[in-house]
Every structure is written in C-alpha cells, then in structure tokens.
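Section 5: illustrative case.
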C-alpha cells in the first residue's frame, strides 16, 4: 500500500473480542466512519464469528474481505511476512498488538502513530488523560485516546447526517418498519420500549408496572439472554415470546438481533430504550429518546462511578426531582433493586425533550473519527 499523503492515511485497527458485542461494535463503527472520511482502513479482528451478527454481509470463514469500504482481516494474518503497518495503528481497548508489530512499526522510516483507544467514560479525569503519550521502545510513542462527552476528549462516534436521518424517522416510518421488518404491529397509542441488557436485570418490578399501567406498553426485546429471563418471568416459552405475549396493558415481543445500522431504527422507533455496554448506550443518546443504561459491571463496583459521572453530566439542567427519579431508576436497574417505572413515567415528556437537547448538544461537537484523523495528522506532520 502506498501512502497517498496526509489526506488519506492508512489505518490498522486491532480489535480483540473479549465478550459480547461491544468491542467489535465500537471498532466496526469506527472503521466505517474512518473509511467514510476517505481513510484507508484495515480492521483486524480475532473473532469473526462474534462480528457476523452485527454485519450479516460478513463471511466469518473468509480471512480477508472488503466490507463497507473497510478491509476486514482475521487477526492471525497480521503476523504474515510482508504485512507492513500503516500510518496509524489503533489497539482498541488496550488489546495487545500482534507480537511482531512493535518491531515492524519501529522499522518504518516514518514511525506510525500508535493509539490505544480507551473505553468511554464521562469521568472528569478522562479529559486530563486524553492524548497523553507513553514512550515505547524503538522510538515509538503510544497515545491514549479517550472518547468522551466534551470537547476536551476524543468525542463520540457519529455518522454524517445522523441527526437528519433520525429526525426524518417519524411515527409512520417507525410503525411501518416494526410491522414489515420485525413483524410487530404497534398500536398507535402504545408506549414503545426496547430492552437490551445483561443477563439478570430486575425485570419483575417493571413488568408489574407495565401490566398494571393505564397506557399500553409494547416491549421489544432483541434476542439474547434477557429473552429467556423475560419468558420465564411471564411464564411463557421463548417461542411464544417471539409471537408476542399480552398481559394486562403490556405486550412483549422478542425481536431478531438486527444488523448494527438497523439497530438504530429500533432505537428511533421506540419512546424509551434500555441499552448497555458502550456502543448501544451511545446510539440511544443519538436516538434522542429517554434511556436507561445497564452498564458493563466491573470489579469493586468501579462501574458505578462511571454511571454516576455520566448521570451528573447528562441530567444537568433538569429539576432536582427528575434528577433524583432518573438516578434512582438507573441505580436500581444496575444494582438489582426495584426500578420505579411509575415514578419515571411522570417525567417522560420532560425527559424526551431533554434527550433531544442532549443529542443536539453532542451534535455540536466533533466526532471521534474526525478527531482521530486530525490527531494522527498532527502527530505525523
Ligand atoms: O454487547 P455489549 O455489552 O458490549 C460490551 C462488551 O461487554 C465489552 O466487553 C465491554 O467492554 C463493552 O460493552 C463496554 O454492549 P454494546 O457496547 O452496546 O455493544 C452491542 C453492539 O451490538 C452495539 O454495536 C449494537 C449492536 N447491536 C446490533 O447490531 N443489533 C442488535 O439487534 C442489538 C440489540 C445490538
């Protein structure tokens, strides 16, 4: 590959799938966004089978393929003779580069920019650590690049024209898509809720509230462990849940796990979204709807600090009572308590307006891929 100058850089993004979909979810999105900015991108992935549900066009048996303008390569190929590192090498989430790569990188006349792309956090220290260098053997410098929620961080992944496309997705489009793509008929007056979470969220208090509530609730649950938990809680089989199960005011449906781009449509089609991890959490913010975050659990409850840090920035500007209600709800959801849907529901109109404002605020900032490109260019000059 020949470098075409600083306009088009050659990027190597390394992704190791630890668990679930978040590692590849973030890397796949970023790789496509870099490619959309005219960059030449190789995405090295150690587990193509975990990647496939997010990108159905991917053939997990093929060690090398081009998808959405990105060269997707099975990780072991990186050790092959003659593979030369590009201008920018990203190790996502501190994954360790293939053993031969630091030496291959050091051997290049112009040393590649080596970036460790970190996990997303709203904690204040992130802005102080963003962009810091850590010298490595062979004259290489490794930089810590933190995504984040303000201009002192690396920003968030965001496709061009995302907010325009989302704003055009009205109720008619939503109900049509739900019916034709997911086979779910949504009553016009139903509150539509999507639920993507880790295995054991405290479902029972929510189900009780939805079943006994005045407003019809349509609950849509992508395939995964929660489907089994929900089926058990409702006393039905997973197969019955796929057909739709009604109890009182609640109708619950499991829905297929859709491609990553289509998942946006599910979020946009709902009035409230339960999301988790990192990427779906960010997508729910771009969806500009009220949300609840099931955060990835960490040792010693370190994740709760992250949760509180996000709540502090996200809820700024809301009345104290609304802040308390949302905070209580999220903490109960994450700690196995009893999330109070009835209390939250009172605030939904205000939270919906707030979510729009938050998305517009984030939209005013530069996105992660654009920040990475300008960071890399500055280091290479
Ligand atoms: O799957 P996650 O929990 O991922 C993670 C991992 O646990 C990871 O190890 C951890 O470090 C990280 O979170 C913080 O949640 P996440 O990040 O939301 O990723 C899910 C991806 O799946 C996201 O890209 C959206 C996508 N998705 C679809 O493509 N289709 C679907 O139907 C659904 C429900 C999700």
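Designed sequence:
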């Amino acid at each position: 590959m020949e470098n075409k100058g600083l306009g088009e850089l050659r990027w190597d993004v390394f992704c190791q799938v630890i668990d679930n979909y978040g590692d590849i979810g973030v890397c796949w999105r970023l790789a496509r966004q870099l490619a959309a900015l005219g960059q030449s991108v190789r995405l090295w992935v150690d587990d193509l089978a975990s990647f496939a549900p997010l990108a159905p066009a991917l053939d997990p048996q093929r060690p090398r393929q081009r998808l959405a303008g990105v060269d997707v390569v099975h990780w072991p190929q990186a050790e092959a003779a003659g593979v030369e590192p590009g201008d920018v090498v990203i190790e996502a989430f501190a994954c360790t580069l293939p053993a031969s790569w630091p030496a291959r990188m050091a051997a290049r006349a112009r040393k590649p920019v080596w970036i460790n792309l970190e996990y997303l956090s709203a904690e204040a220290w992130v802005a102080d650590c963003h962009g810091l260098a850590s010298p490595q053997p062979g004259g290489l410098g490794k930089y810590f690049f933190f995504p984040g929620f303000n201009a002192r961080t690396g920003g968030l992944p965001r496709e061009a024209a995302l907010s325009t496309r989302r704003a055009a997705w009205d109720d008619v489009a939503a109900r049509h898509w739900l019916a034709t793509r997911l086979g779910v008929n949504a009553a016009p007056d139903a509150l539509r809720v999507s639920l993507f979470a880790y295995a054991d969220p405290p479902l029972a208090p929510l189900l009780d509230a939805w079943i006994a509530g005045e407003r019809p609730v349509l609950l849509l649950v992508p395939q995964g462990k929660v489907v089994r938990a929900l089926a058990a809680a409702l006393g039905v089989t997973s197969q019955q849940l796929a057909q739709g199960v009604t109890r009182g005011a609640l109708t619950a449906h499991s829905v297929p796990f859709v491609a990553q781009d289509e998942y946006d449509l599910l979020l946009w089609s709902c009035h409230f979204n339960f999301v988790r991890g990192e990427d779906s959490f960010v997508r729910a913010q771009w969806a500009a709807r009220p949300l609840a975050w099931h955060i990835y659990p960490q040792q010693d409850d370190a994740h709760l600090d992250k949760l509180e840090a996000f709540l502090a920035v996200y809820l700024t500007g809301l009345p104290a009572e609304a802040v308390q209600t949302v905070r209580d709800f999220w903490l109960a959801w994450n700690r196995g308590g009893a999330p109070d849907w009835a209390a939250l529901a009172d605030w939904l109109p205000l939270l919906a307006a707030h979510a729009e404002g938050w998305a517009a605020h984030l939209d005013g900032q530069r996105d992660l891929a654009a920040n990475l490109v300008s960071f890399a260019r500055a280091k290479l000059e």
